[in-house]
Specification:
The protein is globular, with a radius of gyration of 18 Å. Helix 6 crosses helix 7, helix 8 runs antiparallel to helix 9 and helix 9 packs across helix 10. Helix content is about 35%, strand content about 20%. It has one domain: Ribokinase (UDP-N-acetylmuramoyl-L-alanine:D-glutamate ligase), CATH 3.40.1190. By secondary structure, the chain is of the alpha/beta class. The chain is built from ten helices and twelve strands.
């Protein structure tokens, strides 16, 4: 459940600074949004074994039609992706610099109109669900109600607290089972910088002490710090040559949810997520970059030899 956007991609050696104009090298559009990306990541990995349902809103425009078609092509059930005739589909303008780092500015459009209808939709889907994966690209009240409903139905809740906020909305930590902040999001939550393995562990423990059972702090090419009742360790990421980081975090979260839906243990799930994110970072786009399970397993096998 979450955001659905059309990504407007600009590749450039360096993004322009204030008052500056710089020449880019390439422009293209590709379906995105954290909710959509994560749904596609899970569907690519699961194939036909387990269904993935997307809940969200797009505008009744060409971008919305393309976003829904892309989800369906990837094997995502789009019955509950609603088109809002009064809003435009959300967009994200994404700059990718010469090092593959991404800079994202989003205008959420129809995502901001998610409300009671989406709460009803998620309650219907939860009856047969194993995992609910949510983010912060739709109104926080809708996300909170969805998480609370999932908890009452004993459905595991994964909260990706992106995009970054100065703090998490009241009730979010208590309503999720697993929180997956990246380095910047974790710094916003805990209030101190994360620079190395020791500070990552400190941050994960601090966040966990606020009331969430498991914290998985993603650290880009360094991997992910896992903090739970029985685990306190760094899971390294496979060594790859990244060309773009767009969608890598979404690949991680989609793969994490996939593994947990297949009843893998937490460390197995994080390893799958780290490998999926690494593979995604070697490809263009967001949804188009999501790997299959065979590709992820091959990468894990090659790096463990």
């Amino acid at each position: 459940m979450g955001g659905l956007n059309m990504d407007l991609m600009v590749e450039t050696p360096r993004p322009a600074g204030p008052g500056e104009t710089r020449e880019g090298t390439r422009f293209y559009t590709t379906p995105g949004g954290k909710g959509g990306n994560q749904a596609v990541a899970a569907a690519r990995l699961l194939g036909e074994r387990v269904s993935v349902t997307m809940i969200g809103r797009v505008g009744a425009d060409a971008y919305g039609t393309e976003v829904v078609a892309s989800l369906g092509h990837a094997g995502v059930d789009t019955e509950f992706v609603r088109q809002d005739p009064s809003s435009r589909t959300g967009v994200a303008v994404i700059m990718i610099d010469g090092e593959g780092e991404s800079y994202v500015n989003a205008v959420y459009g129809a995502n901001a109109t998610c409300g009671d209808e989406q709460v009803r939709d998620v309650n219907e889907v939860l009856e047969d669900a194993a995992v609910l994966l949510v983010q912060q690209e739709i109104p926080s009240g809708v996300v909170l109600e969805a998480m609370r409903s999932a908890r009452t139905k004993r459905v595991k809740v994964i909260l990706d607290p992106a995009p970054t906020r100065p703090s998490l909305p009241t009730g979010f930590i208590e309503a999720c089972d697993i929180l997956t902040p990246n380095q910047h999001e974790a710094e916003d939550v805990c209030g101190f910088p994360i620079r190395d393995k020791a500070s990552a562990r400190q941050a994960a423990r601090w966040i966990r002490d606020q009331g969430v059972a498991t914290v998985i702090l993603t650290l880009g090419d360094a991997g992910a710090w896992v903090e739970s009742d029985r685990i306190s360790e760094l899971v390294p990421a496979p060594d790859v040559r990244a060309t773009a980081t767009v969608g890598a975090g979404d690949a991680f979260n989609g793969a994490l949810a996939t593994a947990l839906a297949l009843e893998q243990d937490l460390l197995q799930a994080v390893r799958l997520g780290a490998a999926a994110g690494a593979l995604c970072s070697t490809r263009e786009g967001a949804q188009a970059a999501m790997p299959t399970l065979a590709e992820v397993e091959a990468l894990i096998a090659s790096t463990s030899e």
